[in-house]
């Protein structure tokens, strides 16, 4: 749990009083590999902090899921559109490795906003992080080639390639597994 406090303190000072309120509402949960945190049609009930693990967001398609995001340790994870509006999700969130999350319910987050001085700052920071990640992804799809996206992923997350099936990486960069194999051969 201290990992979360350190993360939050990168953007704002967390008083002991505020931390007592926040930490009292956090629930630690462990998930095994290949567990759905959320499926299409379910409403997101949590904003979570990833202590350990890798997760993927994807739209299920017959024979070829469309992976559009990966989330790693020391990050927030949520089907944020579903969470904010409390409407059913249009995509899945799945653990790719054993995962440990610290979770807040929608109601507990609202209480933190009201009961702490820093709650709104934390909520804004989590929102901004999720928004910026989404924006960077969209711009990358518009401005970079699949090879450039692959190289960026390889540079930023080299461990990803040991822990995530290549078909998910191919989907994420917007190519078929065969096209990813050609890119990898060309680079090597």
Automatic annotation (TrEMBL):
Q: Which Pfam families match?
A: cNMP_binding (PF00027)
> Which superkingdom does the taxonomy of this entry point to?
Bacteria
For this UniProt entry, which residues form the secretion signal? none
Q: Which SUPFAM superfamilies match?
A: cAMP-binding domain-like (SSF51206)
- Boundaries of every Cyclic nucleotide-binding domain copy: 29-115
TM regions (residue ranges): none
Q: What is this protein called?
A: Crp/Fnr family transcriptional regulator
Q: Which organism is it from?
A: Rapidithrix thailandica
